[in-house]
Amino acid sequence: MKVFDVAVIGAGPGGYVAAIRAAQLGMTVCVIDEWKKDGKAAPGGTCTNVGCIPSKALLASSGLFEKIKEEAAVHGITVNEPAIDVAKMMARKEKVIRQTNDGILYLFKKNKVEFFNARGSFVSQCDDGYILAVGEPVNERVVAHNVIIATGSVPRQLPDVPFDEKLILSNEGALSLTEVPKNLGIIGAGVIGLEMGSVWNRLGSEVRILEAVPSLLSMADSAVSKEALKIFTKEGLKMQFGVRIEKVETEDNRVSVTYKDSEGKLQEMWVEKLIVSIGRVPNTAALDGPAVGLKLDDRGFIEVDEECRTNLPGVWAIGDAVRGPMLAHKAEEEGVAVAERIIGRKAHVDLTLIPSVIYTEPEIAWIGKTEQQLKNEGREYKSGQVPFAANGRARASDETDGFVKILADAKTDELLGVHIVGVCAGELIAQAAQAMAFRAAAEDLALICQAHPSFSETVKEAALAVNKGAINL
Question: Could you cite one Gene Ontology molecular function of this protein (predicted)?
Fold first, then answer.
């Protein structure tokens, strides 16, 4: 049996990054991952294959289509009525996925990481660490002194409503439609629901979203939620909140959803396709953790300490398989940190400073505390909010929806939270992440010179507004 210093189970964002960093630090490393596409190895996990990367490809295509259709005339550009070729759009998406898969395989080769395209699971403990099974088609055993579990998550199903990926879709089916449905139902107004709803709404589908909680994006700042709802409604998304799903059935190549609305009245919705996006659950069942005594909690997450150690010596777990936000960049940070810890280095991941982004149009991004959280904690704070309509670059680009909102401690001026709904929010939030990582004050952010004209100036203006010094407001 081959012996490795580190074996990583899972080649998603957390797993492949952990493997590369461990190899850079001088360890012998293997990665075991079963993803395949068209018979070829497809490392990158859910994010690359049926998540972050393909959804951004479709958002880019559908966004371009909408701009040509709805906004070209404003710029003095005359075009014939545009049409979407869904097959070509999907082919482009697949090309982007394959480029990313191949890029990861190249990085494994470059860093001398041995890759097994198969399912990995525990067999037993041994004197050298752990014996792992490398399943079909390899059917091998390997020994690892350390194991990093990075198996990610899978979509949560409605009770007794399995995904068939034809009528009732998970994120995977939602990313693989062969034509624009006349009407599309979505259960769940989270990140996946909003992004997929945006894609197909832009391309002409009538989209209806049903959400169980009483408001949009309850995890976001309430000002952002209200603004986003206003914009999405203007764009044509139809949303209902406080909904309880009673029954989902398929008939005559359509889907019927029976539900109770917020007033308790029974309603029925018929759609051509139904996307179910009600969250994700850890992908830990196939690990055969009981073979070595791996401890899971009652929701299937692997129990870890603050440094991602499990209850087993030399076994670590990261990403969606453990506590914390289910975000690719969180998994990447944990992967690097674990590789560093294995050789005895100090490493740091602050789960309170993980930015969240929704890639709708406009984008939504936030980091740190919301205003609701600060009120509930009884913490004194001050805020500054500036609309993109006050920004010259936004006006020139016709991207004036939304705002930047900054929250800071009332006494120390330390940044506590930054919330953005608007153009390039996913890029602008990086300013906030960097500033908050260094425990900067709102004044610090306000004193930084931003290029003019740029969308970034709105962040500076909001920081100025915290202390009543905004210039263009």
Answer: flavin adenine dinucleotide binding
